[in-house]
Amino acid sequence: MFQLGKTIVSEDLIEKEFVCNLSACKGACCIDGDAGAPLEEEETKILEKIYPKVKPFLRKEGIDAIEKQGTWIKSDFGELETPLINDADCAYVIFDDKGTALCAIEEAYNQGLVDWKKPISCHLYPVRVKDFSEFSAVNYHKWEICDDACSLGKELQVPVYKFVKQALIRKFGQNWYDELEKMAEKHLKK
């Protein structure tokens, strides 16, 4: 672990390799698990605002889940999350013709209908950020459903922090990312 501004960053972001392999996993991170995507407070307001523009992209099951639960939920642990369809798929998940899970929010974004790509937790994955009072912990989340992504990352020699570069810049800013790159270069020379 090393400190970068008000963040504590796991060395795994530099040492581990990762490139999403959607053809292998079919977007399993959006349909597996026991909770929706983590949300930040301001993201709940964005979801409420953009829902009418995202709704046409959604499956009937997603619309039903959102209209029953809301555009976001608060978990039993007080965490803000996207709602789920039958405790499984994220309510915002859609599927392409090959059965790969995609994000309806991102589809609306790609078509220029909304200016918000998707929740930052989704954009950052496999990086997870946990906020504490004095700092934020920035960690790599290892999940067996992403084994193919780890293999592809190793084959292509892409460290986690480079794979999620745009998301890290979105979350922490360009200067923070530039400092992370410098730390990575120093770390790898050891």
How are the SSEs ordered, and which strands pair?
Elements lengths: L1 E3 L2 E3 L2 H4 L6 H4 L15 H14 L5 H10 L3 E2 L5 E2 L2 E2 L3 E2 L2 E3 L5 E3 H7 L9 H5 L2 E5 L4 E5 L6 H10 L3 H4 L1 H8 L1 H16 L1
Parallel strand pairs: 2-10
Antiparallel strand pairs: 1-2, 3-4, 5-6, 7-8, 9-10
Q: Structural class of the helices, strands and pairings?
A: alpha+beta
**Number of discrete domains:** 2
Helix content: 40-55%
State the major sheet: 4 strands, mixed
DSSP summary: helix tally: 10
> What is the string of SSEs from the N terminus onward?
EEHHHHEEEEEEHHEEHHHH
The radius of gyration is 17 Å
Distance between the termini: 15 Å
Mean pLDDT: 91
Please give the order of strands in the largest beta sheet.
1-2-10-9
Please supply descriptive tags for the structure shown above:
2 domains, four-stranded mixed β-sheet, two-stranded antiparallel sheet, DUF3109 family protein, Rv0495c
Please characterize this protein's 3D structure.
The protein has 190 residues and is an alpha+beta fold. The protein folds into two domains: 1-18 and 126-189, no CATH class; 26-116, no CATH class. Helix content is 43%, strand content 16%. The protein contains ten helices and ten strands. The protein has helices at residues 12-15, 22-25, 41-54, 60-69, 104-110, 120-124, 147-156, 160-163, 165-172, 174-189, and strands at 2-4, 7-9, 73-74, 80-81, 84-85, 89-90, 93-95, 101-103, 127-131, 136-140. Strands 1-2-10-9 form a four-stranded mixed sheet, with helices on one face. It has a two-stranded antiparallel ribbon with strand order 3-4. β7 (93-95) and β8 (101-103) form a beta hairpin. The longest helix has 16 residues, at 174-189. It is globular, with a radius of gyration of 17 Å. It starts with a strand and ends with a helix. The mean pLDDT is 91. This is DUF3109 family protein. It comes from Tenacibaculum pelagium.
